[in-house]
Amino acid sequence: MRDPYSVLGVKRNAGTEEIKAAWRSLAKAVHPDQNHDDPLATVRFTEAGRAYDLLRDPERRSRYDRTQREAEMRRMDQMRRQHAERKSRTESPRMPAEAAEDMIARIFGVDARAQQEDAKPQAAAPQARPQPASAEAPRPVEDEAGDTPAPPARPAAPAAALISAIIRRVRGARIRAEKAPDLVCETIVTVEDILKKARVSVEAPDGQTLRVPLGCGSTEGTVVRLREQGHRVENLKRGDALITLRLAPGRFRADGFDLRVDLPVTIENAVLGWETTIEGPLGPLAVSVPPWSGSDQVIRIAGEGLAGDDGVRGDLLLEVRLLLWERPDDKMIDLMRSMREGLYL
Question: Does residue 306 form part of some domain?
Fold first, then answer.
C-alpha cells in the first residue's frame, strides 16, 4: 500500500476533520460510477478507502507513524554502515617509500636506486682535465679480439624522478566525496496547479517540507528532481529529492500532455449539431459539435493541453456524452417507440 498521506493528499500533521474532508473529495472524484471509462477507478477508490480507514483510527495511525519513523532510522543506519564499509575498501593503504621506486623500475626497466649508488663514486672521482682544441680525439681502444668495447651506460632517464613526483602527488590526493542516497516520494497535484505553474509543498517521509515547482513538462508520473534536498549522511554529499507527480482526479484527465474532458450533449444537439462555449483549461473556448455525433465522438482542440518540456502544449480532447433531459419528454418517447417498433404516427 502506498503512503496513506500521499494517497489522500494531506500532511502528516493533518487533523481528523481535514483527513475526512480529503477522503470525501477524493472518493467522490474517483468513484467507479463517475468514471466508467477509467479501468483504474476501482483500484483508486479502494486505495482511498484503505488510506482513510488507517488514518481515521488514532491507534492505527500512531502505530503506522511509529513504524515509518523506525524504518527510516534503520535505513539511515544501514546507509551509514554501507558508507563506512565502502570507505574502508576504497581507501588505499599508504605505500612504503621503496614501492614507488620499484614501480618505476618495472615500468622503465631502470633501477633508480642502483643508478643513484653508481652515481656517488662517479661524483667523487676527480674531474679529468680538458684536452686542447688541437688535440686529436682519442680513438676507442680495441681489445685482443679486435672488438670495440661497449659504450658507457647512459645516465638515468629523468622520467624516474617525474613518475616519483606523480606518485607522491597521487598519494596525497583526497578521495572524492560520495553522495548520500536520494529521497524518493510522491505527491498529489491538480491540473490547475500545473497550469498555474504553482510551487506545491510536500512533506517528505523524514519530516522535512519540500517546495516542488510545477513547470513545463509536468504531468502524471513526471519525476521532479530537487538537487541536494534529499537524505543527510555524515561525511557524505547530500542526496537529491525525487518527487513523482500524481494527478488528482478532477474535471480534466491527463493523457500525457493532452487533457480529456467530458462534453455532455443532448440528443437533439447530437443529431442536429451544436455551437456552444465551454470553460477550457486556459479560458473560454468556442466548440462546434458536428451533426450526428455519438458518444464515441472526440472533438480535438489543439494547443489547449499541458506544456511539454519544449514548451509546446498538448491538445484538449472533448469526449461527447449523450445526455437526456431532466424530465421525460412524451414526444421523444413516442418517436423512439415508433422507431423501435416500426410504427409511424
Answer: yes
* For range 211-232, the mean pLDDT: 91
Q: What is the separation of C-alpha 61 from the centre of its chain, rounded to a whole number of angstroms?
A: 30
| CATH assignment of the domain containing 272 | 2.60.260.20
CB 202 within 8 A of CB 246: no
Q: Which of 48-62, 188-202, 250-264 has the lowest mean pLDDT?
A: 48-62
Q: Quick check: pTM over 0.90?
A: no
Sheet harboring 258-266: ordered strands across?
Answer: 253-255, 258-266, 316-323, 298-301
In a domain, 307, yes or no: yes
| pLDDT at residue 323, rounded to an integer | 86
**Which class for 206: exposed (0-12), middle (13-18), buried (19 or more C-beta within 10 A)?**
middle
Whole-angstrom distance, CA of residue 66 vs CA of residue 53: 17
Q: Are 253 and 261 in contact (CB under 8 A)?
A: yes
| Residue 262 covered by a domain | yes
| Nearest CA among 200, 247, 259 for reference residue 222 | 247
